[in-house]
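Handout, section B. The chain below has 253 residues.
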Amino acid sequence: MSLLENQNYTQGIEKLNTISEKSVYYNDALIELQIARTKMQQTQQIPQTQQMEQEEKKQEINPTEIEESLTYYCKGKIDTCLSRLSALKEKVQSGHPLESKVNDFIESIRKVKTLSERGEKEYKNNQVSLALKTWKELLQLEEKIIGRASSYYSTRIYIHLASEYCKNAQEFLNNEDYIKSNEFCNKALKVKPNFKEALRIKNVIAGNLYNEGVRLEPENRALAMNKYNEVLQVALPDSDYYKKAETKLSGNK
């Protein structure tokens, strides 16, 4: 019976079947044979049961777990996000509706990481046109991932874009082309509201226009009023130059 004790049920059954009906051990052999067959069947069922439990466990995933993982993406912790999504992938049963969704997120976020690194490198190397193209692709991909372009990565991109617009605004300001300069300031503020450099340049433009109005006022009041109107178009309503120009215009009525 040592074979059965060592769980060698197949060999044990073969040995038991060789015992003759005339043997004094025959009845004992029948009992042992039944026991061996039962135990062998139970042993074969264990892996199947374990597999079923693993499959059931794999299905235990809530869509909110995906959303929680994406919060790390929004914070710029892309490796943590990918790690959590990969762990979720292991929990999802093959063919489960969430399997393809998790895989798509993993693939898209890995691409975002590549595009982000490429864009930063291009920008640092003054390859602005290439960086802009790369960032455009990244922002489109980000909208696919989180439904909007609003995360750590898009914020960095918008800061770079606003900086580029302000460089153009400063160049036009240096050439006293206030209209063009203001246009680029507005572009910077559109992608990055309250961007300090854009607000600074707008204030300089408003100051220059206001001073021109003051200089023209004794000679040509109509042209001076035009300059004050231009100040209102450029300056922020709560700025000093806006209030000064408004006062000048109200005194002209």
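Note. The two ends are 117 Å apart (CA to CA). Compare this with the example in section A.
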